[in-house]
Amino acid sequence: MDKKKLGYWLFFIALFLGPLYLTEFRLALMGKFLCFAIVALGICLIWGYTGILSLGHGVYFGLGAYCTAMYLKLEAANGQLPDFMEWSGVSALPAFWVPFSNPIFAIGASLLIPALIAAILGFLTFKNRIKGVYFSLISQAVVVVFVTLFVAKQDWTGGTNGLTNFTTFLGFSLASPLVQIALYMMTVIILGASFALAAALTNSRVGRVLSAVRDGENRVRFLGFNPTSYKVFVYSLSAALAGLAGTLFVLQVGLISPAMMGIIPSIEMVLWAAVGGRHSLIGAILGAVIVNSAKSFFSEAYPDIWSIFLGLLFIIVVMFLPNGIVGAFESWNEKREKAKRKGGTADAADSVVS
Amino acid sequence: MAVVITQLFNGISLGSILLLIALGLAITFGLMNVINMAHGEFIMAGAYTTYVVQQAFSHYVPAALFNYYYIVAIPLSFLIGALLGFVLEKTLIRFLYHRPLDSLLATWGVSLILQQVARSIFGAPNVAVTAPAWLDSGLTIAGAVLPYKRLFIIALVTICMVTLYLYLDKTAAGRKMRAVTMNRSMASSLGVSTKKVDATAFAIGSGLAGIAGCALTVLGPIGSTIGTYYIVDAFMIVILGGIGSLIGTVFGALSVGMLGTVAEFWSGASMAKVIVFVAIIAFLQFKPAGLLSARTRSLE
C-alpha cells in the first residue's frame, strides 16, 4: 500500500513539474487533458463505484465552463456589454449575468450550479427507482435539452459560437505563458486534491455503501440504508467535479461552446474512464490522458480515421478489457504473483491469495 | 378550423414518424432489453438503400416504372437493416446480454463506425431522394392540405404495426418471441431456442429501422447523421410508453408527436424539443414505469 502511495506522489510530482520538460504547445495540451481527467475521476466515482452510467456529464462540464466564461467575458468587456450581446441587439445586461462579474461568485457557481442541477435530476430519477440504462437515456435527453437551450438563447449564451475572446483573469493576461504555466500547475494541484478526496471517499464507510448500491441496491435498502441519498450525493459530487474541470478548461483553452457539451463529448467522457479502468481512480486519470493524446494525434494526422478508431476503442474496451488498462495490468500482476508463490513455497495455501 | 385540422394532422404525422422509428426500438429495447445505440445508423442504412434504389431506377429502368421504386426500396431497406442487425447481434450483442450498460457503449462505437463508413461511401453532404410523382400533391379537407407524403408515412406505419401485431400474436415464431421476453429460462426449458429467437427479434427490430429510414427519405435530404437526430427521441418514447409494451409505444409516440407539434406552434422548434423532454421527465415522476407497463412482481 505504501509503495502504491509513493507511486501516486511521484506521478503527481512528475505532472506538476511538466513545465520543465514539456514545450509550450504540449503543456497546453496536457493542461487540457488534466481538466478532462478531473471529469473522468467524477465518472469513475459514479460509474465504477456506484454503477450509475451518466451520459450527461458534458452538461455539467459545460455549465461550469460557462459560469467562469461569463465572468471572463464581463472582465473582457470592461464594464460594457459583451460583444455578442451587442450583435444580437441586446441593450442591457440580463439580470442573471450581473453577479457573474464577481470572480468568487462565478467560480463558486461553476461548482454549485452543476451540483444543484445534478441533485435535482438525480433526486427525481433515483427516488422513483429509475436506474441502469433508463437513467443513462434520460441523462442523454438532458444533454439534448441543454444544448438546444444554449443554442437557441443566442442573446444570452452566444449561441453556437459559445463564449470566447477572453483577455484577462483577475487582471492577469491569459495570453502570457507564465499565467498559462500557473494555471497548469493549479490544474495539477486541483487534480491531485480531487484524487485524494475521491480516494478518501471510496475508502470510507460511504464508499462501501456506494459499492454496495452498485452490487445490490435492494439489499442495501433492506439493510436500512436509503440508496437514493447516497446516489444523489455522489452524482452531484461528480457533477461538481465536472463543473470545476470546466472552469479550469475555459481558463486554459479560452473557449466554450454548446458543441463541447453535446451528446458525443458526453459519451467520450465515459470512454476515458472505461479505457483507464472504470473501477480505478488512477485509471480514470490515465484513461483521460491516453485517449485524448490519441485523439489529438489521430485527428491531426487522419481526421477521417479518428471516428472509426474511437468506435473500435469502445468495442475493444467493452469486449476485451472490461476493467480497462489498470484492470488488465492488475490481473496480469495477480497471475504473476500467483505463479511466483506456487514456485516458491509449496505449502503456501492458494486460498490466502484469493 | 383549417389551423386545427392542420395542427392535428401534423401531430399525428410527427407521431407516426416517431412511431416508425420507435417501433424497432420497442422490440430490441422494449422486449429484449438491449440498448442499441446503432439503431439510428440502421435508419440511415435504410435511407441510403432507398437512395441507391432510386438512383438505380432512374438510370437502368424505363421511366414509366420510376414511380414504383418504393415497391423495391421498402423490402430492400428492411432486409439491409435486418442483415445489419443480425450481424451485430451475432458478433457483439450476444455476448453482452447480461451487461446492458456495456452493450450501450459498444453499440455506440458501432454507430460511430457506421456513420464514418457512410460518409466515406456517399460523401459528407446530404443527398436528396426524388420522391415518386404520385406523392407530390395533397388531399384537401376543409381548407387544410394534407400532403400525400405524410399520408404515405401514416399508411406505412399502420401496415408495419398491423403486420408486427399479427406476427407476435398469431404466428408460432412470434409467440415464441413473447415467451422468451416474458420468462427466458422457462421458455428455454420448454424447448424454445432462445438464441434463435434473440437473433430473429433483433433482426426484425433492425429491419423496422430500415423501413423507417426509407420513409424519412420523402421528408427531406438524408445524410450520415440522420439517425442521431431521432434516436434520443425514440428511446424516450419507448421509456414513456413503458418497457415491453408495443401499444404503450404507440401511445407514447402519438402523445410526443402531438405535444411536440403544439409546443412548436406556440414557441418555435427548438423550445418544443425542450418542452417535450421536460414533460417526459416530469411524467415519469408520476409513472416511473411508463404509460403502459407490464405488471410484474419481480424485484430487480
TrEMBL record, chain A:
Compartments in which it is found: Cell membrane
Membrane topology, as annotated: Multi-pass membrane protein
InterPro entries in the cross-refs: ABC_transp_permease (IPR001851), ABC_transptr_urea_perm_UrtC (IPR017778), LivM-like (IPR043428)
One example GO MF annotation: branched-chain amino acid transmembrane transporter activity
Domain of life: Bacteria
Keyword set, alphabetical order: Cell membrane, Membrane, Transmembrane, Transmembrane helix
Residue runs in coiled coils: none
GO cellular component terms listed in the entry, alphabetical order: plasma membrane
Annotated transmembrane regions: 6-22, 29-49, 106-126, 133-152, 182-201, 232-257, 269-293, 305-332
Protein known as: Urea ABC transporter permease subunit UrtC
From TrEMBL, chain B:
Claim: Cell membrane is one of the keywords in the record: yes
Keyword vocabulary terms for this entry: Amino-acid transport, Cell membrane, Membrane, Transmembrane, Transmembrane helix, Transport
Single Gene Ontology BP annotation: amino acid transport
Membrane-spanning segments: 12-35, 68-88, 151-168, 199-222, 234-259, 265-286
GO cellular component: plasma membrane
Single GO MF descriptor: transmembrane transporter activity
UniProt record similarity statement: Belongs to the binding-protein-dependent transport system permease family. LivHM subfamily.
UniProt name for this protein: Urea ABC transporter permease subunit UrtB
Organism: Domibacillus antri
